Amino acid sequence: MDERTAWNRRYAEGDYVPRTAPSPFLEEWLDRLPRGRALVVACGTGRNAMRLAEAGFEVDAVDISEVAIARATEESERRGLGVRWHVSSLDDFEIPAGAFRLVTNIRYRNPHLWPRLVDGLASDGWALVEHHLKSTADVVGPSQPEFRLDPQELLRAFESLRIVYYSEVLEAGDVDVGDYALARLVACKGDPGF
After folding, report:
1. Rounded to an integer, what distance in angstroms lies between the CA atom of residue 173 and that of residue 168?
2. Residue 139 in contact with residue 128, Cβ under 8 Å?
């Protein structure tokens, strides 16, 4: 089964229950991020894309799943938000050079994508990235190690940018869900201004 079919099935059959609230990491940084055109990769049903649109960003959001994008489109129309939704594999999606003031990559690991995200940043652009980290602790998230980050992998991938914030943390999650091992990065091409 190809990746698109697998994700469509997960969304359609309820095997994957998408989060509806925006990423707390995105919320934490939202007021400090420069407004303009934003790219949200692996957007799922659009929780972060819609939050950025509400905050005044001009948003392009991409996901491989037609089912997820259909749900995102329906919800954004219901809320009156103008997000440009794209159904595409991120390996095939064209990211124009210098087009975005913000790129976000929340909980999707694709090392081949990261240099393209950096190239897609405007001269004053920012990247906000969060993903599951390899850990010896009992944590939630992907069970296969290839879907988790190695320590400092994210830091190395974005080293051409100015690193504004970086952390690798074991974070307490919901008592019913479990703990998370996460790497988080905020970086910019220019001067962060603070």
Report:
1. 15
2. no
Taking the alpha carbons of 54, 55, 60, 62 in that order, is the dihedral positive or negative?
negative
**Closest by Cα among 194, 190, 24 to 101:** 190
Q: Domains along the chain?
A: 3-188 (3.40.50.150)
pTM (predicted TM-score): 0.90
Question: What are the Cα distances from residue 77, in Å, to 10, 20, 56, 83, 104?
Answer: 23, 16, 16, 9, 22
DSSP-based three-state secondary structure for 147:
helix
Residue 52's SS3 state is helix
DSSP state for residue 32 in the 8-state scheme? G
DSSP-assigned letter for residue 150:
P
71-119: pLDDT as tens digits: 999 999 999 999 999 999 999 999 999 999 999 999 888 999 999 999 9
How far from chain centre, in Å, is Cα 37?
Answer: 15
> What residue ranges in 7-150 does DSSP mark as E strands?
37-41, 58-63, 84-87, 100-106, 121-132
